[in-house]
Amino acid sequence: MTSMRKHMRPPSRRPARTLLMTLTALTALTTTACSDTPQPNDAEPPPAPHNRPTTSHPAPRPSSPSPSPADGTDVGACTDGNCEIAVTEPVTIRFPAPDDAGRATLSVTKVGPNEIEYEVKSGNNRSTGGAEGPGQGCLTYLRDRGSGNSCGTLDPTRPSPRPGAVVIQATTGTDGTALLHIVSP
């Protein structure tokens, strides 16, 4: 038995190291190949950098006059569920609820330079929105079985109609005039 041990070599660690290095290389290649990050192409110019604010506060916009709304300040223009008006003080607007579910009410509760707050009621549904800052606003999607809000930087142009929903957009104005859109399907 002693002579047999002399001829046996201890197991080599070389195959284990080779296997480990191969797996590491394959993992790196697979990760790179499956990455969603676009790789630079020498034939294409580099993409323009994205400028994003470093704070959560909106960037001030230059002061400009509020756009002239299609229906001026006529709250009565909204009774059919389609209007674009300017408001400078609290108002209440009644209009058709989505899917012929009766009447809905939009109550603007606060308007001032770069700010607006409002509440929408339709049946048992209630939604509130508010925004502060230049170019800020809220969109409310009012449906017969609920509603949803989204607030932030908005373009003051008329929102697109949505099937089965009344879209309400309220945008702040630097001069204390808020722009309201009500868009029915």
In short:
Residues 59-68 have a biased composition (Pro residues). With 185 residues, this protein is mainly beta.
Describe this structure in words.
The protein has 185 residues and is mostly beta strands. It has a domain at 76-183. It is built from two helices and nine strands. The strands form two sheets. The protein has a five-stranded antiparallel β-sheet, with no helix packed on it. A four-stranded antiparallel β-sheet has the order 2-3-4-5, with no helix packed on it. The longest helix is centred in the N-terminal third of the chain and has 20 residues, at 14-33. Mean pLDDT is 75; it is low at 1-8 and 25-66.
Instruction: Tell me about the largest β-sheet.
Output: 5 strands, antiparallel
Q: Strand-residue fraction?
A: 35-45%
Percent of residues in helices comes to 10-25%
User: Structural class, from helix and strand content?
Assistant: mainly beta
| SS element count, helices | 2
Q: Flag low-confidence runs.
A: 1-8, 25-66
Give me the Rg, rounded: 31 Å
Instruction: Tell how many strands the DSSP assignment holds.
Output: 9
Shape: globular
Order of helices and strands: HHEEEEEEEEE
Spatial strand sequence of the major β-sheet: 1-9-8-6-7
Mean pLDDT: 75
Report how far apart the termini are. Answer: 94 Å
Region (Disordered): 27-78
Keywords: Signal
Biased composition (Pro residues): 59-68
Protein name: Secreted protein
